[in-house]
Amino acid sequence: MSSVLIKNESRLGLKLVAPAVGIIGLLVIYPILFNLYLSFFDVQLNGNKTFVGLDNYTQLLGNPRYYHSVGVSVIYLIGTVIGTTVLGLAAAILMNQTFRFRNLARGLILLPYFAPVISVVFGWQFIFDPVNGIYNHVVVDVLNLTNERENLIGNPDSALFVVILFDIWKHFPIAYLLFLAKLQSVPKDLYEAAAIDGQNPWGRFWHVTLPELKFVIATVVLLRVIWNLNRFEDVYLLAPNVETLPIFTYYQAFAGIVDQGAAAAISVIQLLVLVGLIWLYVRKVLKW
Amino acid sequence: MMNKRTPLQSVILYTLVLALVIFCVFPFLQILSTSLKHPIDWGNPSLIPRILHLDAYKELLGLMPAKEIDVPASIQRLLDNPALSAEKKQMLLAKFSSGGDVFPFGRYMLNTFVISFITGICSTFLASLAAYAIARLRFPAQSLMANGVLFVYMVGGVLLMVPLYQMSVNVGLASSAGGTIFSLFLIYLIQTLPVAMYMLGNYFRTIPFSLEEAAMMDGCSRVEAFWRIIMPLSKPMLFTVFIYCFVIAWNEYLFASVFLKQYQDFHTLPLALQTLFTSKNAIWDRIMAASMLTLLPVIICFMLANRHLSGGLTDGGVKG
């Protein structure tokens, strides 16, 4: 190719990416830097700010509520990451079998993932409703496990587990899709060879399926951690009393005594963790 | 080949599949069932309503006849007084038919539809240009941009809510309804652009380059080749990406709540439903009917786009 053509091509390329990159630069990259700047100020909702140096950070690190929300986030992350990965894998293996109505079943189990959070949270709230919900009906009236109807979502401690279950329900389909795509590409003769070697189904799973899926599992786990670290709506809309880090940040920034500078400081710390995780993902998973 | 399943294995398989499907679908059935139940029926654990009760839907869709207003006897006597002008009577009546009870569902749905539709169109268009360039052309900083898209997509909205809000305050956009909606549109654009670029980039790479080459030999310029060859070939994927962006905007709550809180007329459905739920006149059948109606467009979109969506999301495995 002549140098004129190369020049033309690169000029066209830059022209085509310019609008998208411009918007992303203005509304993602710049805000990240602006956020860092804001974290050194006392910021009001109306935009007034006064420089306070590192005060936001020192106050934050001395705030027990911050550590509490870090703790809640960690439990939430462990529960949801393990839950989605295991259920996603199990569902993928199940849906990889041949059976009647398989396409229908494959479509139906994707529903939770695509449904608007705002709609499905009400369904879940009704299920756990202390007066009308099916959960209390089964636990109290049918199984007689306890005598009292409990408000699981009203109590932050038990609500955390409802939120974890909800998140698994909502997000295992994406893990399932990734696993299924990989399972379908595992060569059949590997299983046949293992069967000839005398492996039972469990052995075939352990010696063939798992090693083949190793990279996808790592991808799913890391992506779940990254996504759930930022997860806001699913938690807040189902149980606003479960204070994971994003919820805590939201309360700091927009509710009660507004302290946007502190919220900016939390975001900066969280972003550093996130960048580490993304780096891990790009280095270890994408280039494995 | 694998040995055939024994009857027992078949039973286990179908049981597990059924259990999984029920687990996934049950909350949806619960929403549908409650939306159709009469309030006296809520405690009934069965999913099938004893009496079909469509009032909640009728009310939301504005099909209810105007409610009979309960007026105390003393006021009723006043109203019956022919000396009172019609205007005064209206004012008196208005006091008793509390306006807080009206939930303009249609308006919220229209708001949400308009902003989601515009977001979907703009995002798909801008992303197709950028994705084509990144997938096909050589230019400076190309690989940086290809990787940058990934990074940007993983920075969640929560991390950006404070700076974005402060930016719109500083620029003055947050002080008017129009400016607020424009800010929200821009935010939805950046929430959808990276994933749209990613999905389209992957798709463009699967189209053989020889097609463009042939077009260019026939005298098409690069831009013409993109417009006449690549875009028509990508129609199904463009549609899928549009649907995906549309649904992201349709479902978004966080930024809508931050920006639109004070502009009640411009609330989107997620925000309106949450407000309805936390308000005192939250009634399960109404909430559930509203949820059902919010859900429906998404399920329709999903059925339209399902074929390409699953593949588009998993190729490379980014979205979570």
UniProtKB/TrEMBL annotation, chain A:
The chain crosses the membrane at residues 12-33, 74-95, 107-127, 159-181, 213-230, 250-282. GO terms for biological process: transmembrane transport. CDD domains: TM_PBP2. Keywords: Cell membrane, Membrane, Transmembrane, Transmembrane helix, Transport. Signal peptide: none annotated. Coiled coil: none annotated. It comes from the Bacteria. One of its GO terms (cellular component) is plasma membrane. Its main location: membrane. Residues 70-281 form the ABC transmembrane type-1 domain. It is found in: Cell membrane. The keyword Kinase does not apply. It is a multi-pass membrane protein. InterPro entries: MetI-like, MetI-like_sf, UgpAE/MalFG_permease. Belongs to the binding-protein-dependent transport system permease family. This is Carbohydrate ABC transporter membrane protein 1 (CUT1 family). It comes from Marinomonas aquiplantarum.
From TrEMBL, chain B:
One of its GO terms (biological process) is transmembrane transport. It comes from Marinomonas aquiplantarum. The chain crosses the membrane at residues 12-32, 108-132, 144-165, 171-190, 237-260, 287-305. SUPFAM superfamilies: MetI-like (SSF161098). It is a multi-pass membrane protein. Its main location: membrane. The keyword Protein transport does not apply. It comes from the Bacteria. Residues 109-305 form the ABC transmembrane type-1 domain. The keyword Amino-acid biosynthesis does not apply. CDD domains: TM_PBP2 (cd06261). This is Carbohydrate ABC transporter membrane protein 2 (CUT1 family). It is found in: Cell membrane. Keywords: Cell membrane, Membrane, Transmembrane, Transmembrane helix, Transport. GO terms for cellular component: plasma membrane. PANTHER family: INNER MEMBRANE ABC TRANSPORTER PERMEASE PROTEIN YCJP (PTHR32243:SF18), MALTOSE TRANSPORT SYSTEM PERMEASE-RELATED (PTHR32243). Belongs to the binding-protein-dependent transport system permease family. MalFG subfamily.
